[in-house]
Amino acid sequence: MTDTSNTISIDDFAKIEIRVGKVKEAVNVDGSNKLILLTVNFGPSASLDKTQGKGLGLKTIYTGVRGYGYTPEDFLGKQFLFVTNLKPRQMPGGESQGMILAVDGLEMAFGEHGDKKPIFIPADGLPIGAKIR
């Protein structure tokens, strides 16, 4: 029998906004040994507001992967896939306005990596701000 306790409807899935973003800035967060702060460009409205029009502009997104050996240089100038409509979350030094997508080990629960380094999904060559369906 299949476990359906974690099953969502197509309507729930349709609420998740996944977009291509290009990392404009990446810095280690002072006072944290895990966090890297990404400033990500999602399109023409290049401001740090929460514009939901044509482009999302710039968003700040924190990722807790320094413990796996990632550095800001691993992200800077590169394109990845991001969830852009998560409820903002207060982090040390600011607000995270989304989440970068990564591949974890098959046997791990959400957010757990064990000793496996998460692998980020590159989106090179795709239009910045493009919505993934």
Order of helices and strands: HEEEEEEEEEE
Separation, N- and C-terminal Cα atoms: 29 Å
CATH superfamily, please? Nucleic acid-binding proteins
What is the second-level CATH architecture?
Beta Barrel
Radius of gyration, taken over Cα atoms and rounded to an integer in Å: 15 Å
The general outline is globular
Q: If you consult CATH, what is the topology?
A: OB fold (Dihydrolipoamide Acetyltransferase, E2P)
Helix content: under 10%
Based on secondary structure, the structural category is mainly beta
How many strand elements?
A: 10
How confident overall, as mean pLDDT?
Answer: 87
Estimate what percentage of residues fall within beta strands: 25-35%
CATH class identity: Mainly Beta
Q: Return the domain count.
A: 1
Number of helical regions: 1
Major sheet size, sense and barrel closure: 6 strands, antiparallel
Low-confidence blocks of residues:
46-53
InterPro entries: NA-bd_OB-fold, tRNA-bd_dom, Tyrosine-tRNA_ligase_regulator
Protein name: tRNA-binding domain-containing protein
Domain TRNA-binding: 12-133
Organism: Candidatus Gottesmanbacteria bacterium RBG_16_43_7
Structural features, described:
The protein has 133 residues and is mainly β. The protein has a single domain (16-127), classed as OB fold (Dihydrolipoamide Acetyltransferase, E2P) (Beta Barrel). Helix content is 4%, strand content 32%. The chain has one helix at 10-14, and strands at residues 18-28, 36-41, 58-63, 79-83, 89-91, 94-96, 99-100, 102-103, 119-120, 131-132. The strands form three sheets. Strands 1, 2, 3, 4, 7 and 10 form a six-stranded antiparallel sheet that branches. Strands 5-6 form a two-stranded antiparallel sheet. The model is unreliable at 46-53 (pLDDT under 50). Keywords: RNA-binding, tRNA-binding. One of its GO terms (molecular function) is tRNA binding. Residues 12-133 form the TRNA-binding domain. It comes from Candidatus Gottesmanbacteria bacterium RBG_16_43_7.
